[in-house]
Every structure is written in C-alpha cells, then in structure tokens.
# Entry
Amino acid sequence: MGWRAAACLLVALTALSAGCVGEGMPPRGEPASDGAATPQPVHAEGEAGPPAAAVQPPAAGEELAALSGGKRICLDPGHDANSPGASARDPSGRVIFNEHDLTLAVAYRLKPLLEAQGFAVCVTRNPDGTLVARPRDENGNGRLEGWERAQAKIDYVNAFGARVFVSIHFNGISDPSIGGTEVYYADTGPHEEDNRALARTLLDSLVSAMRSAGYWAIDRGIKSDNYKPYGRLWVLGYNDQLARKAHWQAGALVEVLFLTSPADVSFLQRPDALDIVARALLDGVVRFWEQRFGAEAAQARLP
# Structure
C-alpha cells in the first residue's frame, strides 16, 4: 500500500471519541469545548457539592505573582482522560496521539518559558493530567453538563487573577485533506478587541514558527467563538449558560494543527515539534503583552 492510500485509511480508522467540537463529528474543523454538548451523568470528576479546594490559586503561584508585577496568565490544556478530544491513528488503527496528552505536553513546556519571562502561570490541569478544579453540578439536576465543566476552569482562572487566558487544543475532522492552524476568540464583551489581538498574535506566531522550522502550516485565520448550537465556546467565558463569566482581559483558544491531517501529524511526530509550538505560543504571548500592557508596565516603573 502506498503512503497516500495509507493516509486515507488512517482517517477511515480514526475515531474521535470526543473531538475538537465535543461529541460527534462536525461538518468542518472546529475547536474543542471541554465537556460534551449533551449532559453526562455526574461522576467523581463532577460530583455535586462545593468545588475542590484546588479552585484557589496555589500558594507558590501567589508568591510568584507577587514578584511578577501583575503578569498573570493561565494555560488551559484542553480536554482530559474523561473527555480525550481528537486522536491521530496509524493505518492499523493504533493511536499515535491523543489530543488531551498533546495539550498537556505543550502547556508544561510553555509554563517554565513564561515563568522565565517573569509571568506567574496557572494551569487548569495538573502534570498528571487531572483537573485542578473539580466540576460540580451547578444547577442541581444530578448531571454534569459541558458548561459546568468549563465553569470550574473559569472560576479557577478568575480566582488566580489571570489577565490573559490561552486554551490549547488540536483539531480533528472527517476530511483528511483539511489541516492547518486557527485561533478562536470571543468577539463580544468589554475585551473584544484584546481577545482579537491576542488571537491574531498567537496565530501569526504559530504559523511563522512552524514555517521557519520547515513545515508550511496552513493559516486558517482567527474566528469568532459564536458558532456552536449552544452558542459561544464555554471555556472562553462568555456563553450565556455560564453562571459566572470570565474576568480576564484577553483570551483565545488555539487549534494548533489537525490530528486527522496526515501532513500535520507528520510534523507533530518530529521530536522538536511540541517545543516549536510552545516557543511560538511564548512569542505570541510576550508580543501581545508588550503591545497591550507595555506602556502600563513602563509607567509603573517610573519613580
């Protein structure tokens, strides 16, 4: 079998257990919103009752934030073992990558890079992949719904006092010819322009970094998060279902590449691929911060 035929077979065998659009296959590549669009029974990760104590920012993060002069950012490695997202598979059906593993790997590569630049950083999942903030049954209906999974993250990020929020995802779709990079943002609320600027800077940094590394990533643009059947992406904090909205000043959801594109997957199999992605996100965040908050920081340093 030639490699082109194998690539097509790869997609036929690919099963997106909870793809980048929640349950089921979308008509096009769309970003993930952690948690399914349909209600799920409450289990250990989302039992009724108060949120886990971890909803409060960790002490180490508070100490670092005090030294950072307000440079607070939160990273959201999309999905988890209970909502694994998209997957890349080889022609035999063997899983090459799961989205929830890739997003976690990128986040924990990016975290120390940001800290080296003076940022205080929170991450919505622990290094072992578990959620830091446990979702709860907000509306008391005995079921854990998608927006309630996102609400736990939003509450955690708000408690941390993050000024910037970046949700990291990888895409998936039934058509293997579709690939590339796109970034979603909330085009509503008091920080619409900052959301848009962050999305644009992150996209430009990612595409430029991958092309400079020898992979001609397709630029799919920045897009509104307001396209779901239930409205805006929950995790970006402006969906009307949420009990408490986002407090950050700029947020974006990055779809790095498609796990159902043979070309994109080939790049991701490079040993340096995730480091390239992490450094590109660092560049995007730093450039956005300097453009948006640079004057403010300079003013604060004046005697």
The helical segments are 3-13, 59-67, 99-116, 146-160, 192-212, 262-268, 273-301. The chain has seven helices and twelve strands. The two ends are 70 Å apart (CA to CA). The longest helix spans residues 273-301.
